[in-house]
Amino acid sequence: MPVLTAELVVDGRDPRAPALAPNGRLLCYVLAPSSRTGDHLDTELWLVDTDPAGASRRATDDTATESRPRWSADSETLFFLSDRAERGMSQLHGLTLADGTVTSLTRWRAGVLDHLPLTDPNLVALLAEDEPTEQDNRRARDRDDAIVVGEREPRARLRLLDLRTGQVTTPQAFGDRHVVDLRQRPDGGPLAVLSWASADSDHGPRNGHLHLFDPTTGTAENLGPVEVDARSLAWWPGEDGWHLGYLALTPPLLQAGTAVFDLAMETRVLRNRTAGLTMCPTELCQTDAAPLVVFADGLNTTLARLDPTGLTTLSHHPGRLDDLTATPAGDEIAVLASTRYQPANVHTGAPSGPLRRITNARPELDGIALGTQQPLAYRATDGLALDGLLVLPVGKTASEGPLPLVTIVHGGPYDRYADRCQLFWFPSAQWLAAAGYAVFLPNPRGGQGHGHPFAASVAGQVGQQEWTDILTGVDLLIAEGIADPDRLGIAGWSHGGFMSAWAVGQTDRFRAALVGAGVVDWGMLAATGENGQFEAVLGGSTGWSGIGPHPHDAVSPISFASRIRTPVLILHGAEDTNVPLGQAVYLQRALRHFDVEHEFVIYPREGHSIRERHHQLDVLRRTRAWFDHWLRV
Asked: Which residues on adjacent β-strands are paired with residue 92?
């Protein structure tokens, strides 16, 4: 039987961004490598017939980064972005299905970021930054490139492409605001436009506004502020006129608890349509009638319709659904679905289910033995219902315990483990299960899938009850004879890296830890990370909150570094702007000061996620080697 190798993990190709044609007969998706080997990620566009035969073909044959497939209203033209002419500079292209020709539609010197074909067959809305001026070019040549914060900052602006003339015009309706999302009313009416005060991800999303834009007259109406982190716009008709909805964070917190907001255009009354639910909306999908809503529902997923009187549940799905696309009538959908032993593939069907898989993006994994994955349900020390996953070593059963156990904490914290295939480049359950480890994947409070109060409970309290939630799960697995208390490890990336660093400052029970892109000082992260206000809510304060000690000091792993005795592997991208490298340097210096066994690895050119092939291979191999050394499987 073939064995799982690091190369099999990182050399795969993953389907992304499915786009279902309005007539429902054809689907396009992006096929992207799991890792990058050069300076650019070379992707492909594929077309699949949605009939049962499911014939597929590659749409283009260029070596390029191709993305964001979108269909014309008549299903005859596929629009997409490609950098085939100049690598790293995407332009809009059109594929005419009748004769298979591909036409370059823009030559915008700043590149095109996004696009939306409009119901007027002659117009496509574009999002693009300003083209460089001659003064900009001269400054670049002379290296007169001092950055004055607040001046000449890039902004994505709404532009209109006339397909008849090739002319691109820029409406002056939004001032200097940064446009981030567009959605046209299904009847061909105005565009809903979501803008930020700036492209700064710390400042912009907290200052979002909604606008109505008339593409015929070029005029706009500002509907005012929206809730924080608004996204996923969708229109729908009601008996009282048109409604415009979006997903955003539930106020007043700037963290966690995503909700569906419904703005009635006639009255301008805004309602939270998902308040009180014990599941969390993740996507809103526009149709000509009521929109579809994807919900994270515990370990699984629920698909519902947002009817005028409430939510109508349409179907339940194991694991996770992403990137939902639907026909205008809403009678056919396509989505990325990943289940327990199958990586993500494109599935199609009616919203009521069942869904049929129409791609097999990872045939190289067929026949590879995976560890048995099973859901867990248990209660926290205060009685709160919790869930998670247990993945057993390949070929082992729970009765063969006690087994070495590695706990991997998810990121976010507003994320979750769904009952899907747990095989990725970062520390993942099936990768460690193939090396003989049992793996615990907990969903502690603060995460997604259990409603707003569950998620919001960690604000200012990170590392408190979420930590005891995790420890309670570990203790349960020990009590059941599955986990060996003398061979415990802990790992995580991002917020999971924070929890790993936190754990080893609270207990010596773990014999080895991995801290990937982890937070060690919340005050420093609020000051230097790209989402500072969000991090300040999680940590509970900032460094400018007055003379310390501050609340964030009590929940920062660095405050407990003198207690750490557990060997720690630190992995971090050199160009990480989400959790800057300084966090890892801070932890490494503390461990060195207290003479704690550790290893510190920095990946050049990498951000918060590791993208380059050799670096991903290193993460996988180094992860196994670290736990093999200290847990001695």
From this structure: 81
Which residues have a Cβ under 8 Å from the Cβ of 505 and sit 6 or more positions away? Answer: 557, 559, 560, 561, 563, 564
Other Cβ atoms closer than 10 A to 242: 18
Scanning 509-579, the segments in alpha helix (DSSP H) are 522-528, 532-539
CA distance 48 to 11: 23
Among 391, 378, 398, which residue's Cα sits nearest to residue 424?
391
CA R_g for the chain: 25
Compute the distance between CA of residue 275 and CA of residue 259 in angstroms, rounded to an integer. Answer: 7
pLDDT per position as a tens digit, 112-121: 999 999 999 9
| One-letter amino acid for residue 569 of the chain | L
Query: Can you spell out the DSSP letters for 32-84?
Result: EESSB-SSS--BEEEEEE-STT--EEES---SB-EEEEEE-TTSSEEEEEE-S
C-alpha–C-alpha distance, residues 629 and 481, integer Å: 23
Instruction: Take residue 15 and report the two structure tokens written for it.
Output: 């389907």
Domains and CATH numbers, the chain: 369-631 (3.40.50.1820)
**Whole-Å CA distances, 161 to 134, 389, 545:** 23, 49, 48
Tokens read off for 65: 């980064």
pLDDT digits (tens, 9 = 90+) for 122-132: 999 999 999 98
- Please count the other Cβ atoms lying within 10 Å of the Cβ belonging to residue 559: 18
Measured between alpha carbons, how far is 557 from 513 in angstroms, rounded to an integer?
Answer: 13
| DSSP state string for 287-301 | -SSSPEEEEEETTEE
Read off φ and ψ for residue 403, nearest 5 degrees: -115, 155
Angle at 179 between CA 184 and CA 249, to 5 degrees: 85
Nearest to 402 by CA among 500, 334, 345, 482: 482
Helix H, strand E, coil C: the string for 379-423 is: ECCCCCEEEEEEECCCCCCHHHCCEEEEEEECCCCCCCCCCCCCC
At 28, which helix (H) or strand (E)? strand 26-33
> Do residues 407 and 440 make contact, with C-beta atoms less than 8 angstroms apart?
yes
**Residue 303, helix vs strand vs coil:** strand
Task: List, for residues 563-610, the tens digit of each pLDDT value.
Answer: 999 999 999 999 999 999 999 999 999 999 999 999 999 999 999 999
Residue 104: what residue type?
A: S
Half-sphere exposure of 618 (CA within 13 A, CB side): 17
Which residues lie closer than 8 Å to 400 by C-beta, 6 or more apart? none
Beta strands in 454-567 (DSSP E): 483-493, 512-516
Closest CA to 387 of 410, 359, 405, 361: 410
Query: Residues 6 or more apart from 151 whose CB is under 8 A from it?
Result: none
Tokens read off for 310: 């409430």
Q: What is the pTM of this model?
A: 0.95
Question: Would you call 107 exposed, middle or buried from its count of C-beta atoms within 10 A (0-12, 13-18, 19+)?
Answer: middle
Pairing of strands 258-264, 56-58: unpaired
Distance CA 557, CA 414 (A): 19
| Cα–Cα distance for residue pair 444/435, rounded to 1 Å | 26
